[in-house]
Amino acid sequence: MNDLQTKAERKGRRRPEGCPSACLGPVALLVAVATASCGVSGSGPDLEQAQEAPTPQHVVPSTPSNVSWGWFPIDKDPVVRVQPGETVRIHTLTHVGATQDEPPVELITSWGIPEEEIPDDLVAFWASRDGRPREGRSGHVITGPVYVEGAEPGDALVIEILSVEPRVSWGANNTSPTGGIFSDAYPGYDAAHPAPSMEPERHVIRTGVADGRPVAFFSEDIHVPLAPFLGILAVAPDPVVGQPGVTVPGVQSSRPPGAFGGNMDVKQLTAGTTVVLPVFHPGALFYVGDPHTAQGDGEVSGTAIEQSLTATFRLSIRKSGAPPAPRAENDTHYMIMGIDLDLDRAARTATRNVVDFLVAEKGLTPAKALSLASIAVDFRVSEVVDLTQVVTGFIPKEVFLR
Hints:
Blueprint: H1 7-11, E1 58-60, E2 67-69, E3 80-82, E4 87-91, H2 104-110, H3 120-127, E5 141-148, E6 156-166, E7 170-175, E8 201-210, E9 213-217, E10 223-225, E11 229-235, E12 261-263, E13 274-278, E14 286-292, E15 309-318, E16 327-329, E17 333-340, H4 343-362, H5 366-376, E18 378-386, E19 388-396
Parallel strand pairs: 1-4, 3-5
Antiparallel strand pairs: 2-5, 4-15, 5-14, 6-13, 6-15, 7-8, 8-9, 9-10, 11-12, 11-14, 13-16, 16-17, 17-19, 18-19
């Protein structure tokens, strides 16, 4: 019996007061894929089509020694070493309930969550906070790094997401008139157009199954479909002071995403998707965190449903194949990202990266590639609240006959 189990898993769960019977225990949203090009789209899993996740060759718990707080260390000892093509199951923790000053059991039970539904490793992380450096860092709890044997700078790390599943049946979302897109630090802030009148609030949300589908019980009348994904998928970066999120030498804050991936918050990066990141250090040093079970494009309040997850990956290397920015694909789309401090520049970068992809991978001329980008590619604002902003070009595979 391992230390990742909640007290409920050891003692047997009791039905939380006021919780529908469907929300008892973590909902296993396991979707396995056989290859990088065959899987499910990012629209959320179908329980009838869900399969057992593959048995991983490695398992990484989110114990205090295996996590970092708000950054991606480039010299941390690997939590595990894997050969290219091997699978690894990684447990992650939401920061909600794990990073505040108040003891987590006292706080989370005050939200109506029974103590037996609080993961032991969340409590253990909270107890380890005082010994962790904070300057230049953010608030995410990040598991890693995973060292992939043979990966070298200039290579690409290929990350097949085989399964994603909630560890608990609760999560939270925060709203505030000065948070997310309404922050006065937001680039588009306009004092003449204030945020809607509201009080800061934490929305504790139960998740479970209703009418045969996994949902978040937002209210009695509103059920939001679950589509669990990890907001952070990263390789160890090459931080330089002056770059977004780098104010201390060697310390890349986990808040802004970049060429290394990181806090991209692209909700389509779920089970059945393959992500490709450039490698900057030997072994790639793969990190994951910021687990979510539902999010709208943009993540405009600054948070999604923040909920602890477990995910299984197959990690491979593409030699001398580093893309200029994160890329992904599932069975229906190629996803090409543009990341910048400015949303307009992010859209321009995403468009340029789509054109370059179509030229290199599909043999189009730049003019034809831009034409196709304009008539067939959807450019979506994936996130707008993490300092750098992400625009993703979704190229439909169905337009290519071969």
